[in-house]
């Protein structure tokens, strides 16, 4: 009887968390692909961090940006399946991403995945290193609804876009390839290095740093596949995007399994004339409650101006029957400079379901457990035999 009550209460909490997430999304989803929260979305910035959370995860992430009274917000949706493979040196994820800008005019669809391999080694008595290399393979296309645009040859000097009878003037413009670009290839490579300084100390510090390059050379010269992103078939390509970050984690308090974590973070991105900085820290209690404050800036070297905002981040975690977990996160970004008086805040929400068993390792008939007993440091856990360092979300 008690077990039935516990199961009903657990289902009720799971249902409540899901409803809160959907309420937020349906009311604010409405971006360009600019994620402001690194936590829980690491592989989008660096493919070598795919699957490093020590779980089989299914997650969704939604972003609303550039909202204004005159225009709809830019909106992005990301769905991802991510798996840590404790029986292998590899981890991976598969993802689908949809992006819409303006009043439903410009859209992007992106499909792909990342795979990461780990090279572990130890120095000294108890310092553990993990060097990870990752490759991201993704294809996407851009589309635009030309019917919502007005071209210059449609404009009449007296009546504007309409003729004397109120009919819309026709344009000689012919939209190529069904209003969209070809599928084009957007590969990425990444490197990261994680150090657990003392695996025998419950309050051991860790450091994680990495570098990544996005939008590398396309693999195909086929007329329907490549790296040309232009909807007008102009063969223009995406400029490469460089990303670098460093992140520390300290455990100032640990007692009887309860701990407080401090995680300072600095990251930098560069694409064409735009430079992006993100500086701040997360503070968490037992991985079940997290609060973060960051200062972020985009600087345009060509126009010599910048846009700054403060990012406030909240995360909630709930363990379900010890082998499952739900994470819910919200981000509220407050513009400080630039268009702060003309646009609304950036809003970001994420929902993730984590499972402590690896389906891939289970299919192979190998050890598929990811919640490892006897781990001393609450910030990290190991895969048996492989010495892979995972983020200990459990």
Provide an overview of this structure.
This protein has helices at residues 2-28, 42-45, 359-363; strands at 56-65, 74-83, 90-101, 106-123, 127-144, 183-185, 188-196, 206-214, 225-226, 241-255, 258-271, 274-285, 289-300, 305-320, 324-335, 346-355, 380-382, 389-391. With 394 residues, the chain is mainly β. It has one domain (2-141, 177-391). The strands form 2 sheets. It has a 14-stranded antiparallel beta barrel. Strands 17-18 form a two-stranded antiparallel ribbon. Strand 10 (241-255) and strand 11 (258-271) form a beta hairpin. The longest helix is centred in the first third of the chain and has 27 residues, at 2-28. The two termini are 27 Å apart. The model is unreliable at 1-32 (pLDDT under 50).
Characteristics:
mainly beta; 14-stranded antiparallel beta barrel; 394 residues; 9% helix
Characterize the biggest β-sheet.
14 strands, antiparallel, barrel
Percent range for helical residues? Answer: under 10%
Point out poorly predicted stretches: 1-32
Radius of gyration: 23 Å
**What is the total number of structural domains?**
1
The SSE order reads HHEEEEEEEEEEEEEEEEHEE
Measured by DSSP, the beta-strand proportion falls in over 45%
Major sheet strand order: 1-2-3-4-5-7-8-10-11-12-13-14-15-16
Secondary structure: number of strands: 18
Question: Which geometry do the CA atoms define?
Answer: elongated
Summed up, the helix count is 3
Query: How does the helix and strand content classify structurally?
Result: mainly beta
Q: In whole angstroms, how far apart are the ends?
A: 27 Å
Give the overall average pLDDT. 79
């Amino acid at each position: 009887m008690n077990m039935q009550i516990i199961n009903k209460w657990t289902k009720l909490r799971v249902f409540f968390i899901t409803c809160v997430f959907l309420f937020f999304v349906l009311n604010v989803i409405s971006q360009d692909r600019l994620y402001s929260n690194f936590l829980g979305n690491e592989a989008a910035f660096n493919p070598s961090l795919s699957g490093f959370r020590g779980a089989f995860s299914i997650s969704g992430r939604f972003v609303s940006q550039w909202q204004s009274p005159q225009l709809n917000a830019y909106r992005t949706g990301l769905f991802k399946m991510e798996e840590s493979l404790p029986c292998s040196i590899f981890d991976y994820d598969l993802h689908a991403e949809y992006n819409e800008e303006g009043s439903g005019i410009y859209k992007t669809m992106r499909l792909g995945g990342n795979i990461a391999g780990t090279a572990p080694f130890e120095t000294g008595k108890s310092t553990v290193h993990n060097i990870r290399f990752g490759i991201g393979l993704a294809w996407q296309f851009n589309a635009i609804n030309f019917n919502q645009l007005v071209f210059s040859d449609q404009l009449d000097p007296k009546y504007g876009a309409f003729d004397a009878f109120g009919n819309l003037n026709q344009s000689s413009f012919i939209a190529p390839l069904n209003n969209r670009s070809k599928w084009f290839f957007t590969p990425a490579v990444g490197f990261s290095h994680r150090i657990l300084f003392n695996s025998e100390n419950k309050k051991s510090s860790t450091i994680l740093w990495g570098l990544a390059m996005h939008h590398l050379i396309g693999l195909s010269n086929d007329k329907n596949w490549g790296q040309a992103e232009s909807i007008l078939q102009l063969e223009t390509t995406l400029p490469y995007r460089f990303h670098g970050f460093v992140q520390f984690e300290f455990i100032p308090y640990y007692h009887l399994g309860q701990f407080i974590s401090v995680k300072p973070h600095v990251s930098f991105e560069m694409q064409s004339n735009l430079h992006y900085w993100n500086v701040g820290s997360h503070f968490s209690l037992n991985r079940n409650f997290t609060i973060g404050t960051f200062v972020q800036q985009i600087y345009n070297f060509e126009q010599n101006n910048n846009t700054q905002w403060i990012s406030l981040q909240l995360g909630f975690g709930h363990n379900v029957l010890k082998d499952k977990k739900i994470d819910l996160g919200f981000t509220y970004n407050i513009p400080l400079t630039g268009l702060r008086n003309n646009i609304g805040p950036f809003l970001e929400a994420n929902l993730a379901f984590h499972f402590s068993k690896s389906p891939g390792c289970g299919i192979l008939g190998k050890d598929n457990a990811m919640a490892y007993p006897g781990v001393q440091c609450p910030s990290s856990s190991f895969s048996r035999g492989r010495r892979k360092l995972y983020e200990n979300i459990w």
